[in-house]
Design brief:
Elements: E1 3-9, E2 12-18, E3 27-33, E4 36-48, E5 57-63, H1 84-97, E6 107-117, H2 124-138, E7 148-155, E8 158-161, H3 165-170, E9 173-179, E10 184-194, H4 196-224, H5 238-247, H6 250-257, H7 262-279, H8 284-288, H9 290-309, E11 324-328, E12 336-342, E13 345-355, E14 360-361, E15 371-372, E16 374-379, H10 396-409, E17 421-431, H11 436-450, E18 460-468, E19 475-479, H12 483-488, E20 491-497, E21 502-509, H13 516-541, E22 555-560, H14 566-570, H15 575-584, E23 587-590, E24 595-600, H16 603-617, E25 625-634, E26 637-643, E27 646-651, E28 672-680, E29 686-689
Parallel strand pairs: 5-6, 16-17, 27-29
Antiparallel strand pairs: 1-2, 2-3, 3-4, 4-6, 7-8, 7-9, 9-10, 10-21, 11-12, 12-13, 13-17, 14-15, 18-19, 18-20, 20-21, 22-24, 23-24, 25-26, 25-28, 26-27, 28-29
Helix pairs in contact: 1-2, 1-10, 6-9, 10-11, 15-16
Protein name: Polyribonucleotide nucleotidyltransferase
Domain S1 motif: 623-691
Pfam family, one: RNase_PH
Length: 694
C-alpha cells in the first residue's frame, strides 16, 4: 500500500514515498528533499554466502547525469564507473550502518541509491544517506536502527544545517554526523582550521537534529515496517572456544600477540592455527569456522589486555606514539618529496606542479564545482603488508584515504592568485601497520613545503582508538593505533589539523555509537598527539615552505590583459599563440577574465613570451623605442613587426642620418632593429624611425 510521509527538515520539506515503486526489494523509499529525488532500496539474499567470515554489505550511490540535465561526456554517452564523489558517498553511508547489522549475519545485503533529480538547495548525498537508513529500517532485514544523518556548515561562525550548494562554497566547515537514538555513530569533516570546541558544538547540534529525524523514521516503521526475518547464525560454537582454550591457554595467546613486530605476531598465530587444525582434523564443522574462532580469541585477549591491564600489544603506554622519523628530498628530479615513518607505517609522498590548465576536470552532479586544482592520490601495494597480489588500480579504500588526506591539506593551500599552479600529491605506501592516511597527511605536508608550495601552516594527523567494556564509562582511548588495535578495537578516530584547529575528521566504529566524553576525549587526545608530531618530527625535517619552487619544476609568470584583447593573443585559428609557444618553448594558458599564465622551465623563454604578449595588448606609445624584425621591404622604406599583429613603416628618409639610395643598403628582411615611434595616425598606421632610436 502506497503511503506518504512528510517532515520539515532544516527549512525544507522531506517527503518519503513507501509502497509506490520498487516493491520487490526488501525495502524501498522514494525520497524527495525539495526537488532532489533519490530512490533508495535495501535487498538481501535468502541464504548466507558460503565460505566467508564477514558480513557482505555492498553500498552503491548512482549518479544519473539526467538528474542535472546533462548528457554524459565521452563516446559512450552513458554513465560509466562510479565517480570519486559517488565512491566517497557510498563509504559515508556504509560506515554508520554496517555496525548496526548483526555480527553473525552472512546474507548478502545491497543498499542502492539512485539519484534521479538534483535540487541545488538539497543535497542528494544527504538524501541518499537518509534513504538507505529508511529503506533498511522498514525492510525485513535484521537491523538495529534506525539511524539518521545531518550535514553541518558554518559561515561567519554560525552553524547551518544541511547547507545548499552555494552555502557549501562559502562554508568553513563541511561536517556529516550520523546518530542512533542515543549516540553518535559516524563523523566525517573537512574544516578551515575550526577549533576543537566549535567542532564538538557542531557535532552535537547535528546529533540533536538527528533525533527529530529518527522520530520521523520511527513513525514510518510503525506504519510500514516489515517483521525482521530469521537467519542462519554463523556464530562460533561455544564448545569450540572451550576446546581451543584447553589447547591454547589465555596466557599462551597473550604471549603470541604481545609483540611490536607484526611479522612475528602473524607467525605466532599461524603456528597456533596449525596446532589447532591438527587437533581438530576429524571435526569438519569446527575446521570451517576455526579462522573466525582464532580471530575472536585474539580479539578477546587483546581487548582484555588493554581494557583491564592497560597493556598494549607492542608494550607502549596508552598515550604513547610509536617511533617517528621524517626526511625530505629523498627522490631526485621530482618537484618535491618527503618520507614519514611512524612505527611500521611508512609513506613516501611526491608532489608535482603544473599549470592550472592541468587541473582535474570534474563531470558530476555538482554544477558549481567543475575543476579540482589540488589532487591527492593514495596507493596501497600488497608488499606494504607483506602480501602478494596483482595491482588492479585504486579501490574504494584507496580513494577514501586519498580524499581524507586531500581534505586535510586544502584549507592551508595558497590561493590561485598567490600560487597559480595545479598540484598533484601522490602517497606511496611503503609499509603499513595502522593509519596510513594520517601518515600520508604528514608526508604530503612536508612534500608540499619541500616543493616550494607556500602553504599557510603545517598540518599533521593521527588516529585515536578505543576499547570499551560493559558500561558506557568503562573504556580506554589509545593514541596512535596500530593495525591489531584497529582490527580488534571499537574505533578508528582520525583527526588532522594545524596548531589552530581541525582541518579534517574521519571516524569509523564497530559498536553502536560513542558517548560525548569519548568523542571529546578522542579529539583532545588527537590534538595533543599531532602537536607532538609536528614539533618533534616534522619541523626538524622542514620547518617552513621553501621560498621558491625547485629547479626542475615549471615556473609561472602571471599577467593581466583586457579580456577583449584575448582574441589578438590567440590569433586566427590559434596562429599567433602557437607561434609564440614555438618560438619561446613555453606553455600559455588564458582564462576568460584575462589572466595569462606563462609556464616554462627556462626563465629567458618565459620573459620573451611575456614581452611578446605585452607588445600585442599594450598600445604603441609615440616617442618610445621598440625592438622589431624587418618583415617587408619596399622602394620607399621597410616594414618592421613590433608584435605579431602590429607593423610599422620606416620611411627611407628615416633609415639613417645620410641620404639612402636603396633600403637594402641599411636593412634587410629578418634584421632585428631598434626603432622609435614617431606617429600613430587615426587609422592606426605607425611611423617609425631607425636613425632616431637610442
Amino acid at each position: 500500500m502506497y503511503k506518504k510521509f512528510e517532515m520539515e527538515l532544516a527549512g525544507r520539506t522531506l517527503r518519503v514515498d513507501v509502497g509506490r515503486v520498487a516493491k520487490q526489494a526488501n525495502g524501498a523509499a522514494l525520497m524527495h528533499y525539495g526537488d532532489t529525488v533519490v530512490l533508495s532500496t535495501a535487498t538481501a539474499s535468502e541464504k548466507p554466502r558460503d565460505g566467508i567470515d564477514f558480513f557482505p554489505l555492498s553500498v552503491e550511490y548512482e549518479e544519473k547525469m539526467y538528474s542535472v540535465g546533462k548528457i554524459p561526456g565521452g563516446f559512450n554517452k552513458r554513465e560509466g564507473k562510479a565517480s570519486e564523489n559517488a565512491i566517497l558517498t557510498s563509504r559515508v553511508i556504509d560506515r554508520p550502518m554496517r555496525p548496526l547489522f548483526p555480527k553473525d549475519y552472512r546474507n548478502d545485503v545491497t543498499l542502492n541509491n539512485m539519484v534521479m533529480s538534483v535540487d541545488p538547495e538539497c543535497s542528494p548525498e544527504l538524501t541518499a544517506m537518509l534513504g538507505s537508513a529508511i529503506a533498511t529500517a522498514i525492510s525485513d532485514i535484521p537491523f538495529d536502527g534506525p539511524c539518521a544523518t545531518t550535514q553541518v556548515g558554518m559561515i561567519n561562525g554560525e552553524l547551518i544545517f544541511n547547507p545548499n550548494s552555494t552555502q557549501n562554497l562559502e562554508s568553513d566547515l563541511k561536517l556529516t554526523v550520523a546518530s542512533t537514538r542515543d549516540k553518535v555513530i559516524m563523523i566525517e569533516a573537512g574544516a578551515n582550521e575550526v577549533p576543537e570546541a566549535k567542532m564538538i558544538e557542531a557535532i552535537y547540534a547535528a546529533h540533536e537534529l538527528n533525533q527529530k529525524v529518527i522520530a520521523f523514521i520511527d513513525k514510518i516503521v510503525a506504519e510500514c515496517g516489515k517483521p525482521k526475518h530469521s537467519y542462519t547464525s554463523c556464530a562460533v560454537p561455544e564448545e569450540l572456544f572451550e576446546a581451543i582454550k584447553e589447547l591454547v591457554p589465555p596466557a599462551a595467546m597473550e604471549e603470541a600477540v604481545f609483540t611490536d613486530e607484526k611479522q612475528v605476531r602473524e607467525e605466532n598465530i599461524r603456528q597456533i592455527k596449525e596446532k589447532l587444525e591438527e587437533a581438530f582434523a576429524d571435526k569438519e564443522d569446527w575446521l570451517a569456522v576455526l579462522d573466525e574462532a582464532v580471530y575472536q580469541y585474539q580479539k578477546k585477549t587483546v581487548r582484555k589486555m588493554i581494557l583491564k591491564d592497560h597493556k598494549r600489544p607492542d608494550g607502549r603506554q596508552i598515550t604513547q606514539i610509536r617511533p617517528l622519523a621524517a626526511e625530505v628530498d629523498i627522490i631526485p628530479r621530482v618537484h618535491g618529496s618527503a618520507m614519514f615513518t611512524r612505527g611500521q607505517t611508512q609513506i613516501c609522498n611526491v608532489v608535482t606542479l603544473a599549470p592550472l590548465s592541468e587541473a582535474q576536470k570534474l563531470d558530476g552532479l555538482d554544477t558549481n564545482v567543475t575543476t579540482k586544482r589540488y589532487m591527492h592520490h593514495y596507493n596501497f601495494p600488497s608488499y606494504s603488508v607483506g602480501e602478494t597480489k596483482p595491482s588492479r588500480g585504486p579501490g574504494r579504500r584507496e580513494i577514501g584515504h586519498g580524499a581524507l588526506a586531500e581534505r586535510a591539506l586544502v584549507p592551508v593551500l595558497p590561493s590561485e592568485d598567490e600560487f597559480p599552479y595545479a598540484i598533484r600529491s601522490v602517497s606511496e605506501t611503503f609499509e603499513s601497520n595502522g593509519s596510513t592516511s594520517m601518515a600520508s597527511t604528514c608526508a604530503s605536508c612536508m612534500s608540499l613545503m619541500a616543493a616550494g608550495v607556500p602553504i599557510k601552516k603545517m598540518v599533521a594527523g593521527i588516529s585515536c582508538g578505543l576499547v570499551t567494556g560493559e558500561t558506557d564509562d568503562d573504556y580506554v582511548l589509545l593514541t596512535d593505533i596500530q593495525g591489531l588495535e584497529d582490527f580488534f578495537g571499537d574505533m578508528d578516530f582520525k583527526v588532522t589539523g594545524t596548531t589552530e584547529g581541525i582541518t579534517a575528521i574521519q571516524m569509523d566504529i564497530k559498536i553502536h555509537g560513542l558517548t560525548r566524553p569519548i568523542v571529546e576525549g578522542a579529539i583532545a587526545r588527537c590534538r595533543e598527539a599531532r602537536l607532538f608530531i609536528m614539533d618533534t618530527c616534522m619541523k626538524p625535517a622542514i620547518a617552513a615552505p621553501r621560498d621558491h619552487v625547485g629547479e626542475l619544476a615549471p615556473k609561472i609568470i602571471q599577467t593581466k590583459v583586457d579580456p577583449e584583447k584575448i582574441g589578438e593573443i590567440i590569433g586566427q585559428r590559434g596562429k599567433t599563440i602557437n607561434a609564440i609557444i614555438e618560438e619561446t618553448g613555453v606553455k600559455i594558458d588564458i582564462d576568460d577574465d584575462g589572466n595569462v599564465f606563462i609556464c616554462g622551465v627556462e626563465q629567458a623563454g618565459m620573459d620573451k613570451a611575456l614581452k611578446i604578449i605585452r607588445s600585442i595588448v599594450d598600445p604603441i606609445e609615440v616617442g618610445k623605442t621598440y625592438e622589431g624584425k624587418v618583415v617587408r621591404i619596399m622602394n620607399f622604406g621597410a616594414f618592421v613587426e613590433l608584435s605579431p599583429n602590429k607593423d610599422g613603416l620606416i620611411h627611407i628618409s628615416k633609415l639613417a642620418d645620410h641620404r639612402v639610395e636603396k633600403v637594402e643598403d641599411v636593412v634587410n628582411i629578418g634584421d632585428v632593429v631598434k626603432v622609435k615611434v614617431l606617429e600613430v595616425d587615426r587609422m592606426g598606421k605607425i611611423s617609425l624611425s631607425l636613425k632616431d632610436a637610442e
